[in-house]
Specification:
alpha/beta, 8-stranded parallel β-sheet, 27% helix, globular
Length: 190
Amino acid sequence: MFIFKNKYFLIIENIRDIDLKNIKKRNKFFIIYRNNNKIDKLHDLVNFRRNCKAKAIKFYVSNDINLAILLKSDGIYLSSHNKNLRFLNYKKLNFKIIGSAHNLREISDKVKQGCDTILLSKLFLVDYDKKSSFLGVIKFNFFSKISNKLIPLGGIKTNNLNQLNSTFGEGFALLSEVKKKPAKIFSRLL
């Protein structure tokens, strides 16, 4: 079965995590580059950004406004631990702001930061922490009634993609499945 959503957020940690040739749909994909390890060279990032623009893929940089401006990205991604309000100034530059949250308090913080979209984690059980709690579809839909900016993130795999059709979010975000099974995921997205 296919997943019908308007927005697909792909979180990558380096530009080798994803092959842009696999992405066929235009104006539906958003790549969030989390540059925690800083292993990518600047000229490689510029080329990657140029390829994203050619394929009409929105490109966001995580928590680094200087790199976002340098790469002429479409916006910035603020992780859940980033509570800084200075990013509101960049909305004037037509920068879109995507935030990440885990609970109602963090959702409120991201709204104060001016986030256009908020990735709410964890929708399903994740492999790296089997004991931590997760929202599930019903609780996520409840939060979606509070804020219509929410996008589910966390624990989304090929075996539970069908459940995303029941969420109220207009899209979803992937992190680990982009690296593990990219061809399988892209073949199911419409």
